[in-house]
Amino acid sequence: MSDDRIAELSGVTRTYGGVAVLEDVSFDVRPGVTAVIGPNGSGKSTLLGVLSGAVEPTDGHSRYVGPDASRPIGYLPQRVPFREEFTASETLAFYVRLAAVDATSPEDVADPEEALERVGLADAADRRVGALSGGMRRLLGIAQATVGDPPLVVLDEPASGLDPGTRERAFRTAADASGTDTAVVVSSHDLELVDEHADRVVLLDRGRVVAAGPLDRLCSERGVDDVSGLYRAIVAGDAAEDDGGDGRDGGEPTAVHVTGVSE
Ligand SMILES: Nc1ncnc2c1ncn2[C@@H]1O[C@H](COP(=O)(O)OP(=O)(O)OP(=O)(O)O)[C@@H](O)[C@H]1O
């Protein structure tokens, strides 16, 4: 089998104040859309931070192994520290300049206006970031993460705070950014959108991967129709037994069979 991996995580553990929020996480990122799902506090943002290089693992490693690119990884954190006084267009021009630093040819240099158009913000090009709605800021963040067409795009809850139509647009834009040698990794609580757009799923529970692999395969293995069924079968089953705390003091995680982690 050809090695089409874009990134690999191996034995990643991350602790804060001695408490593990990610524990021995290993999986390969392959082309297409991978959705990272799981309950609040299960470690999704931390995992995406590790994958993007923004968070240093305490143990294990995360490695980009995709094609050579002037900008290998694009990242949308939960909160983007944009300059409020820049316009949307100036903001993207700034990221385009950053991405262009290592560009080998002029064709590799992205166009800020095109990046705005991609997320439906062409009409807001001259508006100051400080005057954008929360949803528009989110879309600007997606545009920022995809500038320069990085082979690995990591989006932390791109659809949060968006109305249904804009959520769909955000996910579609993310899915469009994926391709035969491009991977998009996205965290989300919106399982309907995950169902519609994700090729693969990584399900986290209390910092551990409890299922990972192609969505179709995971669903058929579990005898469920969709990602909501998968989530209920694996995670929600133990929610009833949860102590209502942060999910870390409720005893042993549910014993589940981890599938598809190495393919
Ligand atoms: N910088 C930090 N310092 C201390 N604890 C942290 C830090 N970042 C995350 N944590 C803790 O790690 C755990 C996992 O957090 P994380 O944000 O990764 O989860 P999540 O699955 O993305 O949650 P949500 O769905 O609510 O966004 C939480 O208990 C959180 O409080």
Automatic annotation (TrEMBL):
Protein name as annotated: ABC transporter ATP-binding protein
Record keywords, A-Z: ATP-binding, Nucleotide-binding, Transport
Matching PROSITE patterns: ABC_TRANSPORTER_1, ABC_TRANSPORTER_2
Annotated source species: Halorubrum glutamatedens
One Pfam family in the UniProt entry: ABC_tran
Domain ABC transporter: 7-231
Region (Disordered): 239-263
Similarity remark: Belongs to the ABC transporter superfamily.
Lineage: Archaea, Methanobacteriati, Methanobacteriota, Stenosarchaea group, Halobacteria
Gene Ontology molecular function: any one: ATP binding
Keyword Iron recorded: no
Domain of life: Archaea
